[in-house]
Design brief:
The chain is of the alpha/beta class. The chain has two domains: 42-328 and 446-481, Alkaline Phosphatase, subunit A (3-Layer(aba) Sandwich); 330-441, no CATH class. The chain has 17 helices and 14 strands. It has a ten-stranded mixed β-sheet with strand order 5-6-4-3-7-1-8-13-2-14, sandwiched between helices. Strand 5 (209-211), helix 8 (214-219) and strand 6 (226-229) form a beta-alpha-beta unit. Helix 9 (252-263) runs parallel beside helix 11 (287-310). The chain is globular. The model is unreliable at 5-13 (pLDDT under 50).
Length: 482
């Protein structure tokens, strides 16, 4: 018996050694592959905030339906990339991350807690980002987003702050950075302390090129730090939703194109581009706004693809999400196995625009009174909600009453949040009803913990195949770049 026990132990230790050797050989092989990969001169990192497979798949299903294909998907440009992986998003203290901790993980390769930008959990250590490493290596750096540039995701590439809500401190770190190009949303000027200069004022004083119109954007030239922001949005700090843009509005793809012109040089560049309003749309459970902004995000990625086609031996494009938002799913109990994604096309404006241009003036004119029938022509025109069922009619009546009477109409705070998530009750009910008709549903007004998809094209693309953590994106980029 004793001999048998010794034999078993010997076998177990032998197997453990084999597994350890095999793991070491795998890691060594992976490192050898990375070492053999040519270094990327031009690096694009596209982050769809709130974008996981449901956001991607709903956009592709919608594109298929409007093109006359009854069942199936019309692929986005980035979902055709040759390398594709799945990426976990949990942070140091929570399975469900926020954009600050997720941005920190992608930008620096380190876990932290939600709300924190490039500090460890103990707040005793600051992290160095991939963008800072790129700049130190002589590359030019651009940070772009469709939302305010002091928001969590873009800030994760240039700032270190113990709270993502310290907008003024973050914006001043942007003004103090040596990065070459910032573009997209305007920093939160309303967060500037009384008597202090705003980050925008400081940039102007230091000789930055500033552009707030398409004409000024087109006039930007290489050689001087530049900040191009969207100055005509009714939302003040961000680009309008893609479905609300009109006339001379500047798109995210145009900011990317100008970035390529400003950043291209002999030592290369690193450009991070965030599709931030995908997340904002999903927080509000507005599938049409999410879908149209995912398509606009893909248009911005196409600018990177066009550049890659001209520089295929020097370029890598990485596309990922920081987390999923809204718990979006393609399927609704009321439609069972049915879907009608073309219904989404009936929505002509985002919840945000409907709030600003329809509900706000109506409420100002009518106080806590008014009738739903007054708004039905606008609802039918902008959401296509005709032929309402008794259930839909009751939902709209309750939401209209809650919108007009405010807190007086709240049955309970819990019920109010579950129904409307803190958004305008009428507008969020309109998107819910339209989404349900399309066969789409939501579980949350916040983030969820499902993995996101990561895609890659170009130098070192194979490193992005497989199943890995968001901190590994930093590590893989570092292997390709330095």
């Amino acid at each position: 018996m004793k001999k048998m026990f010794i034999l078993i132990l010997t076998l177990l230790f032998g197997l453990a050694g084999l597994f350890a050797n095999a793991q070491q050989e795998t890691e060594t092989a992976a490192k050898d592959v990375a070492d053999q990969v040519a270094k990327a001169k031009y690096v694009f990192l596209f982050i769809g905030d709130g974008m996981a497979l449901p956001q991607i798949n709903s956009a592709e299903a919608y594109m298929s339906s409007v093109n006359g294909t009854p069942v199936g998907v019309k692929q986005l440009a980035f979902t055709r990339f040759p390398a594709q992986g799945m990426t976990t998003t949990y942070d140091a203290l929570s399975f469900i991350t926020d954009s600050a901790s997720a941005g920190t993980a992608i930008a620096s390769g380190n876990k932290t807690e939600s709300g924190v930008i490039n500090y460890n959990v103990a707040k005793t250590e600051k992290f160095t980002t991939i963008a800072e490493l790129a700049k130190n290596a002589g590359m030019k750096v651009g940070i772009l987003s469709s939302v305010n540039l002091d928001h969590a995701t873009p800030a994760s590439f240039y700032a270190k702050e113990q709270s993502r809500n310290n907008y003024y401190n973050i914006s001043m770190q942007m003004a103090d950075s040596d990065f070459d190009y910032f573009a997209g949303g305007l920093v939160r000027l309303d967060k500037t302390p009384k008597g202090e200069k705003s980050a925008l004022d400081v940039m102007k004083e230091r000789g930055w090129q500033i552009a707030s119109t398409r004409e000024e954007l087109n006039a930007l030239t290489p050689g001087t730090q530049a900040y191009a922001y969207y100055g005509t949005s009714f939302t003040t700090n961000s680009l309008d939703y893609a479905m609300d843009q009109e006339g001379d509005d500047v798109s995210l793809s145009e900011y990317v194109q100008k970035g390529i012109e400003l950043l291209e040089n002999e030592k290369g560049f690193f450009m991070m581009v965030e599709g931030g309003k995908i997340d904002w749309a999903c927080h509000a459970n507005d599938a049409a706004a999410s879908i149209k902004n995912t398509i606009a995000f893909d248009d911005a990625i196409q600018k990177g693809i066009d550049f890659y086609n001209a520089h295929p031996d020097e370029t890598v494009i990485i596309v990922t999400g920081d987390h999923e938002t809204g718990g979006l799913t393609l399927g609704f109990a009321g439609t069972k196995y049915g879907s009608a994604f073309d219904e989404i096309g009936k929505q002509k404006m985002s919840y945000e625009a409907f709030d600003a241009y329809v509900i706000k003036p109506y409420k100002e004119a009518n106080g806590s009174g008014g009738k739903l029938t007054d708004l039905m022509p606008s609802i039918e025109e902008n959401f296509g909600l005709t032929g309402l069922s008794d259930y839909e009619q009751a939902m709209l009546e309750d939401a209209f009453n809650r919108t007009m009477k405010g807190e007086e109409a709240v049955a309970s705070k819990t019920q109010d949040y579950l129904l409307y998530g803190g958004y305008n009750p009428l507008s969020v009910t309109l998107t819910h009803l339209l989404n349900q008709r399309a066969g789409l549903a939501w579980t949350s007004y916040s983030h969820t913990g499902v993995p996101v998809a990561t895609f890659a094209l170009g130098i070192g693309q194979d490193l992005f195949n497989g199943y890995y953590d968001n901190t590994d994106i930093f590590k893989k980029m570092s292997q390709i770049m330095f």
